[in-house]
UniProtKB/TrEMBL annotation:
Organism: Algoriphagus aquaeductus
The name this protein goes by in its record: D-lactate dehydrogenase
Lineage: Bacteria, Pseudomonadati, Bacteroidota, Cytophagia, Cytophagales
Annotated ranges, domain D-isomer specific 2-hydroxyacid dehydrogenase NAD-binding: 111-297
Family recorded in the similarity comment: Belongs to the D-isomer specific 2-hydroxyacid dehydrogenase family.
UniProt GO molecular function: NAD binding; oxidoreductase activity, acting on the CH-OH group of donors, NAD or NADP as acceptor
Stretch forming the signal peptide: none
Pfam families listed in its UniProt record: 2-Hacid_dh (PF00389), 2-Hacid_dh_C (PF02826)
D-isomer specific 2-hydroxyacid dehydrogenase catalytic domain boundaries: 9-328
Length: 331
């Protein structure tokens, strides 16, 4: 099938060309993000392959169906960016990669947490300038802390296993409790109880209308002073304004984020020569206790292999008329 890739980066191209070399599909790689202006690039293709910040709303879906696109192959797990009702209306099917190395994301969440708690980002810069002073580098142990995990799906589970290895008490909230996690020692509680009792909170649930701004002024009020908040899931799980206020009042002790509410216009681009117009991320970057990475939690060799092979399998299954096990539908 002829596949148009949007938001393509070098690592996407490399992994699809490597793991897709034996497939019969034809690839067109476009750097452009999918939006109202770029949607016409899909002309002449049968499938589009898109990533987390490609806008797929009603207008785009209507255009895609007019162009003759029958399948959208998301090369990611989350699908909050797709208007599934409109996809149904215009007869465009949507598949995703439900799990690709959940450890990649869970390990990155832990990397952010460890960096913040041991200030290795500051130590790295100091030592490079021959400054071997330890003043201001006192950290805290993770061992013995109570960690709250919101969402114990594939990534949340991997995060719980790592937390267990570090000797933490683990509390969790999910709509569905996992027996496997209970056997690991994870204690499921109501959301507010998890918020109240966790010294470290890590978000691993999807972005849905119910979870949008799950972390807001009210929920932050319930959390203990100095709470450490880690978000590697989706930016809009967190009300950024409320988080900035909580950082100013020291309610939040450390904030580590790999995702950001307005990341669509910023992340995955080199803006080093430009003036950032986004006031909120600029403000976040002024805090010494905030660490931001640009949606890179998924970016490991293992995950890229899994993303490419599953995406291509999804497309081949569609071509053969098989049941699409990774399809997502409006209901
Ligand atoms: P998953 O579907 O395996 O697990 C999600 C879990 O969240 C499920 O157990 C589900 O029951 C739970 N959940 C759903 N609604 C909830 C709610 N209202 N409250 C509490 N729990 C709820 O998904 P996953 O593979 O573990 O991925 C989780 C999220 O991580 C994705 O939705 C995506 O947004 C994000 N993600 C980020 C990156 C990155 O690079 N930063 C990469 C992959 C995934």
């Amino acid at each position: 099938m002829k596949i148009a890739f949007f938001s393509t980066k070098t690592y996407d191209k490399e992994s699809f060309l490597t793991y897709g070399r034996k497939s019969e599909h034809e690839f067109s790689f476009f750097d452009a993000q999918l939006d109202y202006k770029t949607v016409t690039l899909a002309e002449g293709h049968e499938v589009i392959c898109s990533f987390v910040n490609d806008r797929i709303d009603e207008y785009i879906l209507k255009k895609l169906s007019q162009i003759g696109i029958k399948l959208i192959a998301l090369r990611c797990a989350g699908y909050n960016q797709v208007d599934l009702q409109s996809a149904k209306k215009y007869g465009v099917r949507v598949v995703r990669v439900p799990a690709y190395s959940p450890e990649a994301v869970a390990e990155h969440a832990f990397a952010i947490l460890l960096t913040l708690m041991r200030k290795t980002h500051k130590a790295y810069n100091r030592v490079r300038e021959n400054n071997f002073s330890l003043e201001g580098l006192t950290g805290s142990n993770i061992h013995g802390k109570t960690i709250g995990v919101i969402g114990t799906g594939a990534i949340g589970k991997a995060f719980c296993r790592i937390s267990k290895g570090f000797g933490c008490s683990i509390l969790a909230y999910d709509l569905h409790q996992s027996q496997e996690m209970k056997e690991l020692g994870v204690q499921y509680l109501e959301l507010n109880e998890v918020l109240k009792k966790s010294q470290i909170l890590s978000l691993h649930c999807p972005l849905t209308p119910e979870t949008r701004h799950l972390i807001n002024g009210h929920s932050l009020g319930i959390m203990p002073n100095g709470v450490i908040l880690i978000n590697t899931s989706r930016g809009a799980l967190v009300d950024t304004k409320a988080v900035i206020k909580a950082l100013k009042s020291k309610k939040i002790g450390f904030l580590g984020i790999d995702v950001y509410e307005q990341e669509e216009h910023i992340f995955f681009k080199n803006l080093s020569e430009e003036i950032l117009e986004d006031e909120q991320i600029s403000r976040l970057m002024t805090f010494p206790n905030v660490l931001i990475t640009g949606h890179q939690a998924f970016l490991t060799h293992e995950a890229l292999e899994q993303i490419a092979t599953t995406t291509l399998e999804n497309i081949s299954s569609y071509q053969r008329g098989d049941v699409l096990s990774n399809e997502i539908k409006a209901d």
